[in-house]
Design brief:
Chain A is of the alpha+beta class and 123 residues long. Chain A contains four helices and nine strands, in the order βββαβββββααβα. Chain B has a six-stranded mixed β-sheet. In chain B, strands 14-17-16-15-18-19 form a six-stranded antiparallel beta barrel.
Chain lengths: 123, 377
């Protein structure tokens, strides 16, 4: 199952673990990513908390927790190769894995069709 | 999307046609990047040639009111040797206040006109302020004639000379910081070999109605890409060049800003410019703080406003410009530290989002400048 937020994050969910990254729309808007600051494994966040920072050549942008949960893994490949966020936003460019505090919270998020409609409405 | 109150340069339509992402900058709608993206635009400029619209900058002529040299008047507020400028020679200088602070940095060129009038280019965000200061303090000696009907473009990079020489071979004969009138595509332009990237290149002043055709002609070359403000900033940062209002402001002296190369030797001896008392004292005794280059050890960019701490964690300074240097392949920054910590290799910590990131004081430019200097003839 894949879900999306209005902050242009995607969540690929297996059981209660969500792999989180930013969407193609987001990486295009950011431009060339040069650095990603990832959270600590074991840290817990509420929905909307600042979890990570993604820096393009021009500016730094925050990544927010799409739902409440605990960080169980981070994508260490981004430390050496932050450009994966641009080149492979939806797979190798993932940021972190979140153990969801409440799987039912996923119902609040958009599915792919709803997200695509949301993005079309932005331009 | 774009605020209607923003001014447009004569190349606004070209920017939009070519996919420029327009943002407000110094009161103008300017392209921060084009579809190529900041990183590739930066790299293209360093390897081939980049075309910049800098029409938002302030171009003016400075005329003498009484037949004396207008440069003598400017020297009251500027510490560079300007009276000695021969026709076609330009100089980087500073507009100082009475406290020795830098109101702006600017380029002054002696024209070939019989009256020896000067062609001056000031920063976009400062033009009203600068013209006001010149009128207020020197208005009895000089007249400022803003050139509002002229555009300004820059062609920068190792291929700039070949591209421009196709239109006018004589531009290859100009040396760094020299300027002359050149006919490009049938239009008389004022062309200088100068820029803000650390690369060889040219700046071209042209009547606003003619600039789009010239820009399109230059863009027909496979070697030329449009470059937006984003890459303009990363290029000048790698070149160690100051951004007015950021790397210095009206409280910062030329000694603190580490632009003492702009203080003419004889001008220092004579001490006859605004703020000379403070500036000469700092030259002899050393300033309290000074602008240095900073090279972070890791990959996190340290942006403007990032606190600088010493090895013990005491906050001692602040980053004034910083980001990612595509040619360097990592983050680079500039900022102010106490003079005692200004030596190359001094270890500091950059407090990025509250976390300490190690960095060292580094020499600038971060890249090799590739200006083309010609022997005096």
């Amino acid at each position: 199952m894949i879900k999306f937020t209005e902050e242009h994050e995607w969540l690929e969910v297996e059981g209660d673990i969500a792999t989180v990254g930013i969407t193609d729309y987001a990486q295009k808007a950011l431009g060339d990513v040069v650095f990603v600051e990832l959270p600590e494994v074991g840290a817990t966040y509420d929905k909307g908390d600042e979890v990570a920072v993604v820096e393009s050549v021009k500016a730094a942008s925050e990544v927010y927790a799409p739902l409440a949960g605990e960080i169980v893994e981070v994508n260490e490949a981004l430390e050496g190769e932050p450009g994966l966020v641009n080149s492979a936003a939806l797979d190798a460019g993932w940021f972190f894995k979140l153990k969801l505090a409440n799987v039912d919270d996923l119902d609040e998020l958009m599915d792919e069709t709803a997200y695509n409609e949301f993005v079309e409405g932005l331009d | 999307m774009t605020d209607d109150t923003l001014l447009k340069t004569p190349l606004y339509d070209l920017h939009v046609e070519r996919g420029g992402k327009m943002v407000p900058f110094a009161g103008y709608a300017m392209p921060v990047q084009y579809p190529l993206g900041i990183m590739k635009e930066h790299e293209h400029c360093r390897s081939k040639a980049g075309l910049f619209d800098v029409s938002h900058m302030g171009q003016c002529f400075i005329h003498s009111k009484d037949g004396s040299d207008a440069a003598a008047a400017l020297e009251k507020l500027m510490p560079g040797a300007l009276q000695v400028l021969q026709p076609g020679k330009m100089r980087y200088t500073l507009l100082l206040n009475d406290d020795g602070g830098i109101e702006d940095d600017l380029m002054v060129t002696r024209t070939h006109d019989a009256d020896g009038k000067l062609y001056v280019v000031v920063n976009a965000a400062c033009k009203d302020k600068d013209y006001g200061i010149l009128e207020e303090k020197l208005g009895h000696l000089i007249t400022v004639e803003p050139l509002e009907d002229r555009a300004l473009i820059a062609l920068q990079g190792p291929k700039a000379v070949d591209v421009l020489a196709e239109l006018a071979p004589e531009v290859a004969d100009l040396g760094f910081m020299e300027a002359t009138a050149v006919t490009l595509e049938g239009v008389v332009c004022w062309v200088s070999r100068s820029g803000y990237t650390g690369e060889d290149g040219y700046e071209i002043s042209i009547p606003e109605g003619e600039v789009k055709a010239l820009a399109e002609r230059l863009l027909r070359s496979d070697d030329v890409e449009l470059i937006g403000l984003g890459a303009r900033d990363s290029l000048r940062l790698e070149a160690g060049l100051c951004l007015s209002g950021h790397d210095f402001d009206a409280t910062v002296s030329p000694v603190e800003a580490a632009v003492t190369f702009a203080l003419g030797k004889k001008r220092r001896e004579d001490g006859d410019f605004a703020g000379a008392a403070r500036i000469l004292k700092e030259l002899s005794e050393g300033p309290a703080k000074v602008r240095v280059g900073l090279k972070p050890a890791g990959r996190a960019p340290a942006r403007e406003g990032t606190p600088i701490a010493d090895a013990d964690g005491n906050e001692v300074g602040i980053v004034t410009s910083g980001g990612f240097g595509p040619t360097v392949g990592g983050p680079v920054a500039m900022g102010f530290v106490p003079a005692a910590m200004a030596a190359e290799g001094t270890e500091v910590q950059l407090m990025i989002r509250g976390k300490a990131h190690p960095a060292v004081v580094a020499k600038t430019p971060f890249i090799e400048q590739r200006y083309v200097r010609k022997k005096a003839s």
